[in-house]
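User: two proteins, same treatment. go.

Assistant:
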Amino acid sequence: DIPANFSLQTETLDNLIEKLDNTLEFALHEAKANKDDITNYDAVRSDIFTRLTNLRNIPLRKENPLIYHLDVMAMYPNIILTNRLQPPAIVNTEICAGCDYNRPENDCQRKMEWQWRGDYSPANGSELRLVKDQIESERF
């Protein structure tokens, strides 16, 4: 991996440290496990606490990140087939009216409630300058 610079938010890390016990209890509850059954609970809690404290104390870091790649595009066909969705996933009556399979006996579209679960994060000044510099340096 290529070393990268990180600037961590100490307030967020303080919040994670403060809520560590509640988070661990929630994880145990979700796993349907009992705290008393975990033989090394205190060691694991102490390790997590130490790592979070280390991150908080040194928020400006240059480290080799662990890079994970998820092939989300490969999941789309499976989701479309499993949920009987039209290829554009969200269609209206005009699109259905022009479809060759638009007959009452064909149950090709599953009606689903769609909910926005995205984040809106506009580019800041440095990101904008980076894109401008990249575009200016490219040759067409």
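Protein 2:
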Amino acid sequence: AAALAAAEKAAFEVAAKIAKEKVSAVNIPLEKKKTAEDNAAEESAAKLVEESRIAKEARIAKEAKAAKQAKAAEEARLAEEAKATEQAKAAEEARQSVNVMKSGKVSSRASEIAAARKQPKSASEERELAERYGAMNPGDRAFNILVNLGMVEITPSPDDPHYDGSLDDEFCAENTLL
């Protein structure tokens, strides 16, 4: 029985040794397989890092391009705004010059009317008026006197090439064309 137990023990040790050798034989390819998998994983990770870097560079380039376009658009908007401001300023200056011309015409006409209405007149002014109005027929004389006193305004023909329409809105504001 002791010999049987010793034989079993020896068989068990041999079997354990064979199993250990088989396991180590299996482990070597597993280690090699793990190393290949690790290499593949490392390569995959490196590839992902590289793709991420390339994507980041592309995003940065795209953002730079968008910033450049935004800057160009802003510069164009500012230039357009400056141009509009310049045009508005020129239009205001033109309006002011027209108003000055209007006021100059109105003030010169007003001074002529004031001078014609001034009484008493000197003898030389009376003679001048008599000479001017004496040669006219009574209807023309009456009309010219009324015009000179500012009681009648002569309306120019709009068809006249020298017609100045800048004062048209002064007389009929409701007829201002837009």
